[in-house]
Design brief:
Layout (H helix, E strand, L loop, with lengths): L6 H10 L1 H16 L9 H29 L3 H22 L7 H6 L1 H12 L7 H11 L5 H10 L5 H23 L3 H8 L1 H23 L2
Helix pairs in contact: 1-9, 2-9, 3-7, 3-8, 3-9, 4-8, 4-11, 6-7
Length: 220
């Protein structure tokens, strides 16, 4: 696996992006986690189903984009992908720290697909069973998100579609603490992730990951 592209990095990216995940998907996670008298399925099971579907969508996207990266994988293209991966990490860090919102352009690029998927996802609300919550997560995972898109571009530089898929799955696992906390109303963790200092520290660490990815390229 190339420098900076590792399972550990993917997990940490998901963890550090938790504050952004709460802003993007926290509302739907809280809705799924609400106890309903007409549902016999515990809230935690519904939440695990929703997040499991979300992780499946990330994994599928990683496999698709990673496969495209393999098709383009000659010497020059590999160098370009690795450079882009490092730059996307820097952009992701700036985005999470709220120092630069350039990744919003990526989110807008994905709004066309989401326009068709959102009505379909809405059919599974409110989720009352595990299959419904799983289907909801599988569709909601395609919500336009600069954090996910930048991680996808980073993962596509792995060199094979299996590794790209694995990296995206691990990124999704890293987002679980924030998403489960939101769904189960863990107010203390949500407040911690929403703090400006927390966001700036998380963004700074991701920027360091990006620079670490770029150093072997700039200083071979």
């Amino acid at each position: 696996m190339t420098e900076g592209l590792s399972i550990g990095t993917a997990l940490v990216l998901g963890l550090l992006g938790g504050a952004h995940c709460i802003g993007m998907c926290g509302g739907i996670a809280a809705t799924v986690g609400m106890t309903r008298p007409d549902s016999r399925t515990p809230a935690i099971v519904l939440l695990l189903g929703y997040n499991g579907g979300r992780l499946l969508s990330y994994t599928l996207a990683g496999a698709l984009l990673g496969g495209l990266g393999v098709l383009l994988a000659d010497g020059t293209a590999t160098l370009v992908l690795r450079t882009l991966a490092g730059l996307m990490l820097v952009a992701m860090g700036l985005y999470i720290a709220q120092w630069w919102k350039g990744l919003l352009y990526l989110e807008r690029a994905g709004s066309g697909l989401w326009r068709y998927l959102r009505p379909l996802a809405s059919r599974f609300l409110p989720a009352r069973s595990l299959p419904q919550s799983l289907a909801l997560g599988l569709l909601w995972g395609w919500l336009p998100c600069g954090l996910v898109y930048s991680t996808l571009i980073w993962a596509s530089a792995a060199g094979d579609w299996q590794t790209s898929a694995l990296l995206m799955a691990c990124f999704g696992l890293g987002t679980l603490p924030a998403m489960l906390a939101t769904g189960l109303m863990a107010a203390q963790l949500r407040q911690l992730l929403a703090r400006r200092l927390t966001q700036q520290l998380a963004g700074s660490l991701i920027i360091l990951f990006g620079l670490f990815t770029l150093v072997p390229i700039l200083l071979p």
